[in-house]
Amino acid sequence: MSVLQEISSNVKNMKQLEYSALARRLKQIKEDLRQGVRKPFKEVIDVSWGDPHRGGMKPLTFVRQVLAACLYPQLLIDNKLPVDVRRRAQKLLDGCAGRSVGSYSATGGIPEILQRVSEFISRRDGGVPSDPENIFICCGSQWALTRILNVLVNAEAAFTTGVLAPASCHRTTTLSIEGLGGVVIPYYLSEEQGWELQVEELQRALESAEGACNPIALYVINPGNPAGHVQSRRSMQEVIRFASEKRLFLLADEVYQGCIYGEKEFVSYKRVLAEMGPPLSDTVELASFHSASKGFMGECGLRGGYVELVNLDPAVQKYIYNLFTTDSCAPLLGQIALDLMTNPPLPGDPSYFQFDQETQHIKSTVVKNVKKVCEAVNGLQGFSCQGVEGGAFAFPRIHLPAKAIQKAKDVGMQPDTFYCLKLLEEAGVLASPGSEFGQKEGTFHIRFCILIPHDVLEELLRRLTHFHSQFMKDFS
Ligand SMILES: Cc1ncc(COP(=O)(O)O)c(C=O)c1O
Prior knowledge:
Blueprint: H1 9-12, H2 19-34, E1 45-46, H3 61-71, H4 83-94, H5 111-124, E2 135-138, H6 141-152, E3 161-167, H7 171-179, E4 183-188, H8 199-208, E5 214-221, H9 233-245, E6 249-253, H10 269-276, H11 280-283, E7 286-291, E8 305-310, H12 314-325, H13 332-342, H14 352-378, E9 383-384, E10 393-394, E11 397-398, H15 402-410, H16 415-427, E12 429-430, E13 432-433, E14 444-449, H17 454-475
Parallel strand pairs: 1-12, 3-4, 3-5, 5-6, 6-7
Antiparallel strand pairs: 2-8, 7-8, 9-11, 10-14, 11-14, 13-14
Helix pairs in contact: 2-16, 3-4, 5-13, 6-7, 6-12, 9-10, 14-17, 15-16, 16-17
The structure holds pyridoxal-5'-phosphate.
Pyridoxal-5'-phosphate binds at residues 50, 140-142, 170, 221, 225, 253, 255, 291, 293, 300, 305.
Family: Belongs to the class-I pyridoxal-phosphate-dependent aminotransferase family. Alanine aminotransferase subfamily.
GO molecular function, one term: L-alanine:2-oxoglutarate aminotransferase activity
Pfam family, one: Aminotran_1_2
């Protein structure tokens, strides 16, 4: 007999991603192309994920050399690899049980790596102390977030747990909240103000949840996904005060901290909280997430992320530790990727020059991409795009004609999903619809990754421009 009836209703009620219909169509189109079916494009540009390597970005040589030597220690004994690569790989292997990346590590991560990650955090935050005991390495930051939500969302409570989350929001987070039996309380970012997070809107959202659930946490993404904004210090201070007043646990998703393109600099929530001083700095409970998936390294597939906990009751931290124990440990290659992200080669190291050149190249490519996207998209009738200050995506708004909206309704689709499906079928570009991430009623968006080579971006924009003009003609 099937176990279907035993499956929790929380899991059954998880909404299917808008993306699923597009993914199915993508598979079919790829198969058609493989079989030689003629289409207006030779291959699909898939920019629906925040996955730089998928989009054609090259891995960093230093990172791959160290990983290669860790996987195949024979490389340590000849001198084909630079000496600092071999030294680093040796040091990392010395921290692995049995000197092998095939072994398990301690639950929270390899102690030496946890130590170096905590030193990175402290350097990043202008000397604010960081204790490796408060850091847990996980198979990706999303997994770490889900583990923390495991503790915060109480599916057995009489009153459903509520988590304030931005709209638009990284979709897997809202899925995790719902899958664990919590509810998402959406707060809208102000698109007109460059996707600013406004505390009045947090207040409105919280009031809207009164009597419907028990709000326990506030989730922020900075720099934003999909919105691409970077929060100012002032905005972060307001959020911290709000979390304190309303007794909300602050979940700060900071995985795009290395991806900043404009004037604003990234400041961590932990640093802002520490600089606000007591009583806030001693009381607001915070979990901050970071990952090797993002930034200019983009090693999504290695699955290395961490969470740092601040001001947590040790009793709560014990439960979190227990939950992490059920995963045994994060993949060792992911842990090593985190070590390399947080401790790159330094000036004077043999690998420094090449490392610097490669990271500068990626950075200048993305800065060029951002400029190009804004110019091109804002030049199209019916499109508008806020400046992209950080993150991995452009998230322009499309003002769809009424006829297109009606047509989408007729075929049972969200209007921006309909647009993305046509863009895929007719131009071979796979972007994500805004409806996937939540958006203000009556507005429509598409999201695409900008951490891609410049020539790929140019081809994407060429196809989008051509497609869009035809689409507007067809539906106006
Ligand atoms: C805001 C945000 N947080 C977390 C993640 C997940 O990252 P990881 O690969 O570390 O699980 C993503 C991935 O796209 C993201 O956009």
